[in-house]
Each structure stands twice: as structure tokens, then as C-alpha cells.
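User: Okay, second chain of the day. Same drill as before: sequence in, C-alpha cells out.
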Amino acid sequence: MQSEFAYTYEVGVFRHRPYQIGVRADPSLNDVDSFAVVLFFEQKDGIRIEIAKIDNSEHDRGEIHLDQYYRSDPTKKDFTIEVDSVYEADDFLEQNWLRYAQLYDRNHGTSAVT
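Assistant: Same drill. C-alpha cells below.
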């Protein structure tokens, strides 16, 4: 089940496919304990395909990180991004969405995704 976003917005279109950013925060955007900011597109059947996600879930190597689903090896997590908040994560993905969409297309071939 996909969790609901506090807000989403379209960041642009690549290869006739609209890309969006979705932001969720717990318990709320005014009082953030945990967050996730997701760059995604939706298939025709409504399924979200995540391209990149910045979240602050704790891992052995740190907290805030970028899940790089656009890579051919999607298990790669980047703990070196300079993001300190949900809003900085939103800005980061908004500024880099096209590069990640292009990399996802190159590595996974979005033309094969319906």
C-alpha cells in the first residue's frame, strides 16, 4: 500500500511522462519527526514508480539519505547529500529531477513501463 503524501506537484515532463514530487511527514509538516520526499511517475494503472527518494529513516551508516532507484543497482543509498530537512529534500529533488528521470530511463527503459 502506498502511503499518502501531504502534498504532490508536477516538476516536469520527460518523454511524454509527467514526473511528480510527493512529500510526506510524520506527524505533520509543522512538526516533523520523520519524512520522505519522493520523485515518481504514475503508470496508466495508477501505480507509482519511484525514481528517487530522500528520507530520514535511520540506517547503520546514518540518517538522511538518497535512495537511488534510478540506478541499475537500486539498493545504493547515498548518505553524502547535504540535506537537513524535508524542505531541503524537496528543493534537492526539484532541482535534480530531470537528471534522475534521464538516468532511470537509460537504466530501466521507461518506454517498457506502461
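The CA atoms of residues 30 and 36 lie 14 Å apart.

User: Thanks, on to the next one.
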